[in-house]
Amino acid sequence: MMWDWHASLPAQDLAARAHACGTRLPGVDSLLLTGATGFIGGNVMVAAINAGLARRLLCLVRGVDAADALARLRENAIQCGLLRSRVDWLTEDNILLGVLDSDFSPAAQARIAGVTHVINCAAMASFSADAQVTRINVQDTLRFASRFAGSATLQRFIHVGTAMACGTQRGPRIAERDAGHGGASDLSHLVPYTRSKQEVEVLLRNSFPDLPLVVARPSIVVGHTVLGTQPSASIFWLFRIIHQSRRYTAGPHTRIDVIAVDDCARALLRLAVKPELAFDAYHLSAGARAPTIAQVIAAMDEAVSIDGEPAYRRCPASELPALASDVARKERNSNRRLIERALRLYSGFAELGYVFDNGRIREEIDFEPLSITDYVSECMRTSRGVGILEQMSWDFKS
Q1: Mind telling me which Gene3D superfamilies this protein's record contains (predicted)?
Q2: What is the pTM of this model?
């Protein structure tokens, strides 16, 4: 099938022929994508274009005008790996100008009314304590979804959440059945982002019971299997710190559930276009195949041809100030407090050691994500010459 696209030459030829003749997946008349200028959404856009859906793709993009929005869209498409020969496949016809809470013109509303599939990737994914996180991820998302309430044409509304919406009061293995309805509103969370994703999931289901809603909950999304950190360096800076320092607050045998963004994007597209789905919520995760921290560190050692001495060890939280100072000194950066704050924040996630069951998604679409141990070398290659503080900016935007 065309939506099962991989970057082989025959597949590239197939995508080009599909675009030239306007071939599309049956039933996918108009696919509306939000967040297309972001990390996950940008990779979904590339996957959709490579699947021959460029002429049926509508991207919600902010901009001064359509030309400005198109320029931003094309720039991110290239960053996310779209072949430059295909950039011209994106035109102003692919642009729905605005943001989640926009007051759309009658012409734009007419285009929205014809949408058959939605993949909602738009969110403020910063781990900063910013009031915009709740506004965008909850209120604005609900207003956007309300436009499809009672739609006679909409067949599927994929909402991209996060596996960590489960909160912190769980055992180490998170059953996929628990991903369905968000749970209690008083769940403990480490950051406002995960709380906002849990809250909006519950509100979407309760506010719009007739919406053909499917929630996709990615685990930790780090890097790209081919492009490494080129599309985004989000979270990989933490792996670099742990690798360099050989210590952190999680034990060496703690599992870390990570998937690559291109695996995540293809899974989202498959969930969107598959005519029938067995469930209304899925984990997009490494699951039982999630590697341990020690295995990831060993793969990073191999990537840079070192023997792994000294061995990685678990350290107490009391060592984090010294660890932050070491990083700041090596980076020749005086912002030790930001580094320490980030290390403390992420230590909370690492110490949970969550593994998110992915039995549903594996059965539904034969989901087989590549282990980070198999592509971490590309992440390291594309991080050469890039400062850790520079990479941290992906996660601390405010």
Answers
A1: NAD(P)-binding Rossmann-like Domain
A2: 0.92
